[in-house]
Amino acid sequence: MYQEVFCLSRGIEALRLLNNEPKEFTNFERSSAVRRRVVKNQKRPVLKRQNSRRSFDECLEKCGIIEESVNTVKDGYLKEYWKCLNQLKMIKIRRKSNGNAIVNKQLKQKVAAKEYSDEKLGIWKLRWRNRKIHPVCDVRIQQVDGGFFEKFGSLFREQAEFVVAQEQIEKQKVAEAAAEISPDKLGEESDSDQPLPTVESDEVSVASTDSENETEKDQTDLIATALNIDELYREVLFEILHNVGCDVSCEIGQTALFSYAQDAFKISNDKHRMLMEEAEQKKAPDLMINVEIIEAKDLRPKDSNGLSDPFVTLYLASNTAHRYNSSVKPMTLNPVWEEHFALPIRQNTSDETLCLEVWDFDPAESVKEKLGKVFDVKGLKGMRKLVKEIAVTATSGQHENELIGKANIPLSAIPASGMTMWYSLDKKNKIVRQGVLKVRIAFSSEKNNKVAEQEYRHLLRIILLHELETSKVAPHWWCGSFTPQGEQILTQHIAQSGLSPIEVAVCQYCVFAAIHQNHALSLTLFSNLLDKIVRAVQGSGMCEEDIKLFWDATKKLLPSCVKVIRKIRKKNTNEKTKMKQVTDVLRILNNINSLEPPPNFDLFPVMLYPWISFREEPNCDIPSIINDAVSQGALDWLNHIMENNKRPDESDLARLQNMIQIIQLIRSDLQKAIEFYDKLFQETVNFQYAKALYVFYQAKLSTFCEPEVVEICKSLKKLNYGYDQIDGDLSMDPLSEGTSLFELYLAVQRFHTLGVGLCPADCDSFHIKNFHEWFHGGVAQWLDIAVYKALQRIEKAVELDQLVHVDNTVKYSSSAVDTLTIFYQVKVFWQQLNWPDVESCYTFIAKIIDDICRCSVFYADKMAARVDGLGDTQDIYEKRFEVTNEWCLAINNIDYVRETLEPFTRDLGMTEVIEKICDLKSPLDGQRCEQTLENVIANAVDTVRNKIIELLETVVNKMAPSMKRLLIEGAELCDQDSNSMDRLMMYVDNNLCTLHRELNDENFNRTLEIVWNMLADTLEDIIQTNVDKRRPPSFFANLHKTLNLMLGSFKNPNDCDSCDALTRTEQTLRVHGLETTDLIHEVHKNLTAKFKNTTDSPFGEISVRAKFQDNDLIVEVMNARNLMAMDSNGSCDSFVRIHLLPEHKFIGIEKPKTKTHNRMQFPLYDEKFTFNLTCDQRQVEDALILFSVKDKDLLGYNNQYIGEAFLPFSEIEDTLEYITNLPQVHLPLDRPTESSLQTIEIRALEHRQGEKLAKEFLKKFKQRMGS
Fold first, then answer.
1. Where is the MHD1 domain (predicted)?
2. Fewer beta carbons within 10 angstroms: which end of the chain, N or C?
3. Closest Cα partner for 38 from 1064, 1019, 1002, 1044?
4. Which residues contact 1071 (CB under 8 A, 6 or more apart)?
5. For the whole model, what pTM was predicted?
């Protein structure tokens, strides 16, 4: 109950906002027929405006029932609801209406009260969020077609929006997960953190299937190592005995190192003792200390210009005579040298000290040269130094370098692996530091480099295999950290062998790559090593043999790297570890891609990479391999999901659901690729990972889905719907799987939209861009069936319509809402399709518009038939028709549906399609298409509008007999004591009040026009009938009086001006109601008005003067001009007779005439006449003076009529002036014409031929015409 009340209140508020109405309407105030007065202030609520243009949704909003209403709220759906609500909050989907807050509050209260306990309402939240129209239709209406339109309209859209919301939620989750394991965050983590194992136990061998042949060479190396194991072991023992560097003082003793080496080399005790003796007897090695002078900073100035010319002197404290000097860096306090020196160590390093001195070079200069520096002096202190130098040079002629500072470095403080450090420069008797010096120091020997490298590789392999075996480290875990014993042995070997850092890195890279084939190491290890090696390779800092070793190792490493890209979707790998692996792999590939492999070096042999697309010539193209690896990984994943998501059966529904599921999984994979890896691939190797995936997936989906969809759409043609069919078996509906078909359409559409964003430049070349063509048959069939089902539902809706208002704020009933619901669902379906092809889009829109127009006309016909026969009543007086609310609702319903047609077409996107047609073809074609659609719409609108007019005419025609009978009774019994007049007024009043109250303004105005025309026709019939019966004028006067009373009871008299027919009929009725004398005077008044417009008369002109003096009328006939010749001699014998009209008002007043003037066309009469009038005669309304000019016959019996003129009393002055002082009045002479006989007044007189007065007047009137 709450939902209905809520929706009703929402509808009322929406309607008021739409129409800008006050909250309280002013009802129509009916006028009292008895009191016969008009209520001036008749206000009606403005519910619709003529020619208003509103969107289709706004029209639907007026129904007051909103989609937020849910018919059945199942209890257990709350779990899904809260889940969906929280997720929607995460992605910040804003609520679009206050109704959401109300519903949420109510729902929370009900949850707290534990009123709900059932399950699943996945789309519940979306219903409230969308706030669209979804009328609560009668279930019986939906049963007609099994909820066909709901399935493909709102529910279809809600399902699509729910899927989109879920995709947004999934996207947000993926983005958050990607942010948590982004490379930036991974880089911030400590290297000491132990990553979790990322490969299952049965996958310890990363590339065991890909590198069988590569291991043959490794076996050869192992054999060679085994043959020289004793020598290598003896060398290790010797290095332990003769440790160099500060490492000697660490906690690891020699005994522990000997034990570790024996375990690593797997040497027996006897052999160990033997090799130990040989190592002890071996001569100590000749070591060198390598020193690199890098730079100095913040040196103290020693010259007068505030700078120095520094150079470095270095030597061993035990051999001060053997000194090494660097170059001089002139005029600087922050010199950069980067110079290398090698000093031989002749004795025990524990007691030796390296001395570093920084001097200021003082060149030999004369006094004159030193005086030339006076302009470069800086400060007072500099001036003192310059003066001192000049004095020394002048007295002794000598020059000496000045010490800036020195540093002493004990060799025992230098680790075996060497170090780089800043040392403070000090000076005797100086407390303040003199500057800092940066140096790099390391030990080395004079051993052959190639032998040293080979020994180091063998030693590194043995120690690493030993540590991997003893520690049982998981695959991909070991990242270069040895135990302290292993690290000490390797460090001493590097130091005493004299290996450079690049040589060490290359050896490690080769050994690690070989071991990585059988026991996966951390890829970070290789990435870091490559960062060092690549710079050396690019800078030509490596020999050819090392370069060959490097590329052979790279060839062994790459299969595992490529496998990481292919298996990027493995579920048994921690996401953080996987991201780190991918990052390292991409760094490795990027480094390798920056190098040029040796000629004819096949980096990617086909036997190891059978899936690569480029199979000819040595293949070293890293970007192509990445693309092939991504595509192969996607293919493996696609095969995997298809294998694990098999169809339960081969029905169309199962096939559709299977395709939807596969597309959703593929989209999820793409989303993860976008959020996790795409940015990483682009930034690291400049490869668009997500784009490559999409290109692969779209081709596979097109191949997989297109034939399936086309076949399913063809199967929809199995049933042929006929429009004569009323009931059908819904279980056999060919669109029972249609929901899934169009869900698939939306899924493919979203997939294509994703591709447009990923590949904007290439999307037009994809086959999937024409995906809509796969569904063309399904959409066309759906529209065919939709027409039939729409007509079925409309017929049922009209049948079940109770013809009552939907609510108090609107003026239509449920069938109109049900009909618009059909239109709305069709519109929603079309909008969800978002059909991309312009030409077929135009075809579909044209069909939809034509079908909707057809449904509108069909609804109008059914609605008219529904109310036919309603309103017929009978009482003690008569049987008559009463206008009912049902008739008004039927009219409003049809008009309401009509109003939505044009907005509906706009919402279908007709304008946009026409614009695209103009761009695609030509403006002329677009104009033709637009004109075609407009003609269809205009024809439908006109047809529906004509149906409304027909209904209104039917209503009025049903009222006509009663109104005619009541009008006649009113005319017959008007002056008698009868209630017929009251009954007439009440009948008209009640019916028109009902029409006024129930109809909108436009239709009510149409009704009034029809009523006026009906009254005009009815009165015309009554008048003609009673004229033929020679009814007295009193009858017509009473009828006129009755009509005026009736008109005044329901309208403003000024409103009748627009109805010409009623105006003419009312005039006719008024004329027939006049007495004969009044009727004759009406004829004269009409002639007066007509003669006033005469300017150039053929009959001549008469000049007169006239005035009133008290009750006397004085008239002076002065002359006539240009009178028409009446005699054969071309002249006339004229005189003027004066008449006062109307004659029955001036009885007893003589009709004087002037003298006759013979044979003159310009006679001068100059005669005065005085009429003594009574007060009543003086005040006669519309009185006239008629001047009749005649030609006198010889005998005086047959005078001829020349012409006449009229002078109204209203134009005569009442003055005491002499009449001679008044201006002349020139009156053109004229005659009645044939047209004068056609006036209603003359025709009324002709119907009174039985009256002597009328008969004589007509006879004289014709004589005055000159006939």
1. 742-863
2. N
3. 1044
4. 1079, 1082, 1240, 1241, 1244
5. 0.57
